[in-house]
Structures are given as C-alpha cells and as structure tokens.
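Q&A log
Question type: sequence-to-structure
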Amino acid sequence: MERIVLLGAPVEEGSGRRGCLMGPDAYRTAGIVDELQALGFEVEDRGNATPHAAPDAVSDHGHLKALRAVAGWTRSLHACALELAQGPAFPIYLGGDHSLSLGTVAGHAEAAQAQGRPLFVLWLDAHADFNTFETSQSGNLHGTPLAFVCGQPGFDTLLGRPIPARVDPRNVCILGLRSVDPEERVMVREAGVEAHDMRAIDERGISALLKPFLARVSAAGGLLHVSLDVDFIEPGIAPAVGTTVPGGTTFREAHLVMEMLHDSQLVTSLDLVELNPFLDNRGKTARLMVDLTASLFGRQVLDRPTRSF
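Response status: OK
Response body:
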C-alpha cells in the first residue's frame, strides 16, 4: 500500500497510571509523518479518536479499573478499525496503553472474517496480555486484549455484545515474553498460542522464531496485525513505559523483526502502544519507536541517520 492512515488512541485508563494519554502526540512530535513520507508514502493523519459512552459496561468483578472508560474506547476503536480495515490505506494506531488493542484487533478480525481471510496477530510484548476479568490480578485492562480477541469468556460487556469475530489463538504469536501471570500462562498454553520468551530468543535467535510464523501467515493467505509494545524492548534504551521488565530485546533485534516484517509484505495493520512520554528521556523512546516503524515500511540499515540523545 502506498497510503498510510494514522489514528491516535490516547487511552491511559487501561494501564492504571497516567501518561499514555500523551503518546499519540509524542509520535507526531518525534516525526512519524515526516519519516513515512520520506519513504515515499502518502500519509493521512486523522487526529485522535474519541471514546463512546458505555454506561452499560458493568461486571461482577469489582477489582476491575476504569471498566466503563475502557469499554467506551473499545467500542470506538472497534468501529474505527472495522472501517479502516476495509479501506485502501494501511492503518497505524498511535497509543495509548495496550487496552486500545481490545478495539483495534477486534475490528480487524471482523473485517478479515467478512473477506473470508484469517487474521494473524504478532504480539511483540514482555507480557502475554491473556488475562480475563476473573484472572487479572491488578484489574488493569491493558492485560486482557489477547484473551478478549481470542474469544475467552466473560468479556461481552466491553462491546455490549459478544465479540463479532474471534482470532484463532493458533494464529497468534507472542515474542519477547518475560513476565506472565501463573493462570495466564496456563491459558496461553491451553489455547494453543505460539509464545516465545526471551530465553527462546537468546537460544535460537529471533529470526528463527519469526520465520516459521510468517510462513504460516503466507501459506494461509492471512492478514497480519502487528501490536508493538514499548516494553518489548530493553528498558535501558526504551524507558518510556510504565511496565518495565529488564531483559528485553536489543536495538538490533527489534529492528530485525521490523525489517523481516517489511520483507514479508504480509503486515496489514499496526498498533504502537504503551508509550508514556512522562517517563521518557528527551524523546528517546518515541524516536526509537518511530525508527522501528520506518524499518517496517522499508528503511534499511544503511539508510539510518546518525543520532545522538
């Protein structure tokens, strides 16, 4: 695709702390439009989405935080994603905490189902985000998106109805895991999700883990949604995230993933999530995330400018 649509999703209610609200504008300030235009793309920035009202969003689980607010965002972003997935442009959702993917992935899954094609999801994250309302220990809903889109029970209140189209858990690959709750670990395994922790990356190399998944997407004629969490990356080089876990991917490993995704020509939509500019160091993390996005869209190693922070 030669056109890209940017949609801001200034969601912070799912994370339990403030700051992700500023994420979309941080990406803009870091030059995401200019970088993509320099690669030859026509870029349309649609500004920021706004949440729907969701006064009917209720749950018997009293520990859940900001349920109505997150449900409102889920309904709004589901509608936006469903529309964008049917258009001619490549959508990038600028977050915002990872609860935004409750809506974006659900919207793309419904559009894929209408096209008769399977949706695959690559989840680049230190966390599995496979908790349900019942198993979430913190009550923060940014830890639930994969469980929701994969059809785990108990989530109907988010959209006010059952999810219209679920993602087959076997079509999900999680890369970069290093913090998973005990019950969540069991559910990921039982659901058949492909999950690789940092030990697997250390032992086998990240390209050896990603290549077979991309081959499966290609063989199935699938659409591929990528959800990139800041905490996928080592916090020493990407500090602007509220859920830092030491031992993340290196600068080169993260770029290699993006370069491989570009070479595959399989990616059809992208989330950029959990950027909290309040925790950043002179825009260091925002700039890195923009650079990674540029790698996804074709910037090569030899084209990378020299930068200092």
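Response note: The first strand starts at residue 3 and ends at 9.
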